[in-house]
Amino acid sequence: MNENKILIVDGMALLFRAYFAQQYSARRLADGTPTNAIYGFLQYLFDAVNQFQPTHVACCWDMGSKTFRTEMYTNYKANRPEAPEDLIPQFSLVKDIVAALNIPNIGLEGYEADDCIGTVSKQLSQMAHVYILTGDQDMLQLVEERIHVVIMKKGRGNYAVYDLDFLKEDKGIHPFQVVEMKGLTGDTSDNYPGVKGIGEKTALKLLQEFESIDGILSNLDAISKSIKAKIEADLDMLHLSRTLARINIEVPVACSLEECLWSVPTEAEIVFEKYRLASLLKLIV
User: Fold this and answer.
1) Are 154 and 44 in contact (CB under 8 A)?
2) DSSP calls for 142-193
């Protein structure tokens, strides 16, 4: 039986990565609109399509910086710099081009792309093998029998593909423990602290011994005095960090398999010509 395979793209992760890889490129339209990030984004997208040969493709986006997480914790992602000025006009433009390829753009205000990716992955994994294309290790919590997380590494076409076995082998943890790790160690890129003084090594050791944060908390007396003191001093932040790290898989978004069937429509050529990107269509094998 020909098994469906859906590639779910973390749009912002690809666009930002492409921007920083292409920021010295002077690619612009006649009116001066920059398209360097879009050009790189499409290279990454087509590389992944060629590599993983999906039958279906969807793309998820962040919809502004205010989400349910910023309401819980005002410092969440507060350390992120503003988007570079010449990237901003490319945000809406890239969605037009994605839509021209008949790929659904999915996103919902108040939620992050991660949450939409998590929700759609769970929905569609019933009908297809899911491959999530991202640079974000938080996504590893979504790994399941039929959900693989493809982490982009340095250089084009270079991926680490996580399934349950490789996650265990590479990180020493199960998917649910990705969230537990973040609860303990925090996340500097998302700007929440976890437990002060607990690093990855200690967190990993605790989770291998007690499985989860709840397991650790019910066995505090079996833990060294200094670590116990650190956890007790930061209990609220431990729980909050774990909540912030957990991807919401019940976002009110949906995408049917039919909507994201992968086939480049002939009229995509017109859009690609208009934005001076026609050469990229040759990349699709």
Assistant:
1) no
2) G-BTTEEEEEE-SSTT-EEEE-HHHHHHHHSS-HHHHHHHHHHH-BTTTTB-
Sorted by sequence, the CB contacts under 8 Å of residue 108 that are 6+ apart come out as 63, 115, 116, 251, 252, 253
In angstroms, the CA 213 to CA 71 distance is 24
Residue 148 carries which side chain, given as an amino acid letter?
A: H
Q: H or E stretch including 6? A: strand 5-10
With contact defined as beta carbons under 8 Å apart, do 218 and 228 qualify? no
CA–CA distance, 22 with 221 (Å, rounded to integer):
53
Q: DSSP secondary-structure letter at 28?
A: B
Which residues does residue 7 pair with via DSSP β-bridges, in sequence order?
A: 57, 131
Question: What is residue 5's three-state secondary structure?
Answer: strand
Tell me the pTM. Answer: 0.95
> CA-to-CA distance for 159 and 70, rounded, in angstroms?
31
**51-91: pLDDT as tens digits:** 999 999 999 999 988 999 999 999 999 988 888 999 999 99
160-185 pLDDT, tens digit each: 999 999 999 999 999 999 999 999 99
